[in-house]
Amino acid sequence: MPTFNYLGTDTPSLVLYLPHRPQGLDQLVNTPDAGLLMENNSNHWRKIVTLLAKVASPDEDWRRFRDGALFQHTALCFAEALVDRSTWHWIGGKENIQRFDLDGLNAPPLPEAPDIAIDCKKRILLTPYPDYRQISNTKVSQIRAALDKEGFYTPV
């Protein structure tokens, strides 16, 4: 049985790196579906997918984005290598961050959220593990403001 390391579009605006895979990943690889991913997995995955949608959504309607377009614009990656330097990379969780070679990273913490850091030049976002207890709606707003300042939500 093959090991799948990626779920989503080949040209994502944002890739979220996680240390573990959801159940049924092999069934989702060819046709990524956020609803099916959440349906076939625990509430833990619902939280992850929802936080990804809240951060990546081009507007405030993150539910519509999550349920209809999430994996047309984003991806989940389960490998240790950053896949494409032209996109934004979100690495969540202290243990997960340690899997990556981040030499030369210049990621100052956000002023109002010291546990979140962004290297704008390398397009890397470092956060606690993507869970509501770790990343509140207030922190999501701070992340969105920082990404917006870097042109993340501006159509290319």
Structure description:
By secondary structure, this protein is of the alpha/beta class. It has one domain. Helix content is 33%, strand content 19%. The protein contains seven helices and seven strands; from the N terminus they run ββαααααββαβββα. The protein has helices spanning 25-28, 34-39, 43-56, 62-68, 70-73, 94-97, 137-149, and strands spanning 6-8, 14-17, 74-77, 88-92, 109-110, 113-119, 124-127. Strands 1-3-2-4-7-6-5 form a seven-stranded mixed β-sheet. α3 packs across α4 (62-68). The longest helix is centred in the N-terminal third of the chain and has 14 residues, at 43-56. The chain is globular, with a radius of gyration of 14 Å. The termini are far apart.
Q: What's the arrangement of secondary structure elements?
A:
Layout: E1 6-8, E2 14-17, H1 25-28, H2 34-39, H3 43-56, H4 62-68, H5 70-73, E3 74-77, E4 88-92, H6 94-97, E5 109-110, E6 113-119, E7 124-127, H7 137-149
Parallel strand pairs: 2-3, 2-4, 4-7
Antiparallel strand pairs: 1-3, 5-6, 6-7
Helix pairs in contact: 3-4, 3-7
Number of strands: 7
Order of helices and strands: EEHHHHHEEHEEEH
Give the termini separation. 38 Å
Which percent range fits the helix content? 25-40%
Q: How big is the Rg?
A: 14 Å
- Tally of distinct domains: 1
Q: Largest beta sheet: what is the strand line-up?
A: 1-3-2-4-7-6-5
Number of contiguous helices: 7
Low-confidence stretches: none
